[in-house]
Amino acid sequence: MRYLTAITVLLLALFVAGCGNTTGERTLSGAGVGAAVGGVGSAVAGGDPATGAAVGGAVGGATGALTDEDDIDLGDAID
Fold first, then answer.
1. Contact present, 30 and 61 (Cβ < 8 Å)
2. How many whole angstroms separate alpha carbon 14 and alpha carbon 36?
3. Is 72 exposed, middle or buried, given 0-12, 13-18 or 19+ CB atoms closer than 10 A?
4. What is the DSSP string of the chain?
């Protein structure tokens, strides 16, 4: 059951990861995705989910803030 929850959260995080046209939106979505992935990854690995979520959220938020819209445009990669 724990792995099913982890997979579900990771899939939802992937859907959220594509959100964000402005720097603020990318920062928030990056922080949300990072927190989800960090928390679940830490729980699956046997660590503290709160610490994993905090670290993941910080890294994801920073990554979102440091990217611009052209850095994450996957439309060209798919075409």
1. yes
2. 10
3. middle
4. -HHHHHHHHHHHHHHHHT--SSHHHHHHHHHHHHHHHHHHHHHHHTS-HHHHHHHHHHHHHHHHHH--GGGG--HHHH-
Cβ atoms of 60 and 32 within 8 Å: the answer is yes
C-beta separation of 42 from 4 below 8 A: no
**Per the structure block, which two tokens stand in for 20?**
């964000």
Rg (CA), the chain: 13
- Residues 27-70 have pLDDT tens digits of 888 888 889 888 888 888 888 989 989 998 999 888 888 887 77
Question: Could you tell me the two tokens for 19?
Answer: 């959100």
Q: How far apart are CA 51 and CA 34, in angstroms?
A: 12
